[in-house]
Write a structure and sequence with these properties.
This protein is an all-alpha fold and about 750 residues long. It is about 65% helix and about 0% strand. Helix 21 runs parallel beside helix 24.
Length: about 750
Amino acid sequence: MPLQKKPPKEEEEEDGDPFVTNPESRYRRRATLERLVGLAPFGRARRGVPKEGDGDRDGDAGRARRRSEDFGLLRRLPGRRKASVDAVTVPKRGSLLRLALGTRGRRGSGAAEGEEVAHGDNGGQRPDGRAKGREQLSVLEILELIQRRDLVAADEQIIALEAECVAASPAASPPTSPAGRQARDVALLYEALVAQLWAVVAESVPSGCPYAPLRGVIRVLQQEEAADERHLPGTPGRPRGLRRSWQDAVARAAAERLAQVTTGTGLGDRLAALTGRLLGDMGTVRCHLAPMYPPEFGAFGVYARGYQRALAQQVTALAQRPLDVPNLYLLLDWHNNTYPREVLGHPEVGAQLRAQGLGPPLPPETQRSLESSCIAAVKAKLEVAVAQELQLSEDMWPEDVTSQEVTEGLATRVTGLLRAHVERAPQISPEFGMEMAHELLGVLVAFLHSFQRKVERFLEAPAEAAPPEGATARAIALANCCPPFRSFAERLAQFGHPESEEPRRQAQGALDKVTRICNHVLTRRLFEDLKPYFNKLMKRKWLTSSDAFDTIVMLITSFTQKLRPLHPEPYQVLVAELHRRVLIEYVRPLLQARLVCTSAKMRARVATRLGDEARQLRELFHRLDSASPWLDSVVPRLRELLVLEDTAALQMEVAVLARDFPDVRRKHVAAVLDVRGLRGHGARQEILGVLQDVEQSDLEPGPPRTRAFFSELPVTRDVRCLPCHLPRLATLPRLRLRPARPRP
């Protein structure tokens, strides 16, 4: 009885091949699988009909490797399989369909496949992995092992397939030849294997526990290193150097982990989150992942360097954003202080991280760029702020304000603006603090020059523009601003920048000018009141009456009572200048030779009065805490020139006077000798000859202004003694002295 032909549908269910009745459909199905899997070269490499002798070549290497096309035949002829083929667990055609179609396979096999995949993930091994390793599998079977993450067995098959490829064609083969297609299959299989290896590496850190599939990755790395050592130099594709690729994969995984950190918009939150993610992941590596690697891998160091590079990329990206001054300070402080303290000083992973010799996250040029940007931003911000403060203070000067209000409104607030950055920058690094201090010193110098010009313009106004009392109070208030600025400039210069000396001198010079103009305003009225009393000194009436000198002392004492609001520093400067100018005005009439001694008795009276008044002036300025005690000796030295009789003693006294007051000249001593009544030409020349060397060095720089005395006492003409006895001049009714005509 003839066999009934089954319908195509029933035949498909029996044989398990829906395209058996139509060979053309079978080839179209393979092309569809190739497009779905993305591995078109695999099928094409096996699509040709085996030539004669192929079996002999395969036989040389052992059992012939099955092609992927053979699986359909084995499924259609279940009763005709060879015993050797039945002894190996051959994947069914349905498994390849599931490989290509995903979840479109038969429902009945889904649970079994899930169990098989679960076994494959257990440490990268499958229960049937050893069998697969002993049998030469097809390309699609190896691919199935890779996708099921049976990575160790898959790598063994790829290494064996690569050995066959090298043995069959040791030289370079055309891509269209069977050997060339086989080499291309090996390359694509390695691509798929490596993709799964690095996927496992990326999944291991987020797991937070010992990750079993990572053991398979480590085994594959060891197998590949052994294969690299077995192959001769020059072998195509060898050495593969998977350990270096593993290090790069670790770095990529670290970069992905840190890139996934999502926080608020604040820079501080972002940096804190990056720090937390790094510490958490490195803790997982230290406790769970690094112990799984062999010691020669140096796993902890590889992960540490990878996370270091990833963190550097994130922080560099943050540094390239436009940041304001607080965020610049925050980023620099995190880089210099927070990272070393919280990461490298972490109690669990800090010691191991420090052992790796990791440098700072940012490269030096990026750090310098951040510091320069911060300094430039601070400088621009402060220049505007201090200019506004100066303008607000200047608007208050014409008003009736106290010294404390002016000082607190200007000096305190300006130095406060600068002090905030002077204290903040050194906390980041001493070098950054030094650079910041130097730039702030430049800002302060520019401000002080502007302050000086405004003070000069305000105080040098006509006298009727402001009443005297108001001018005195304002001058005191402005003078009190100088000490805070002076001390702050010194503090900025003490940071040790090599170029800070010149700005410091400029700042001190501007403040000295402000102090001098304020002192001039304060003492101008006093010396206007003292002038008529100084004119009464060194006359005959002065020898018998001390009223003029007593009035001078009283006016000076009364004036100093008004200086109580002055701060100690400007007060000492003012008193020292007052001391110098009072003595200059006191000595001036003496050098004008208003009084000429005609006898030793008269010289004694003049010397006694000079000594007594010199003592009173010394005591007065000692009570006023004058810082110029060197001035106390000028009047006693001049007095000695009137008292001494011996020429040698006079010469010695002149030498001492020249030593204490380098700006004394012959004309000054000659004027004192005229008051003494010394008319002998020879004796005068011997005494004045002591100063000859001093006058020859007039081209040398003189003493500073604070030490100048005789240089501010010009003698307009030399006083010459008349060759007659002075009492006889009283008998002359009238004496006319005509100036000598200039010689042609």
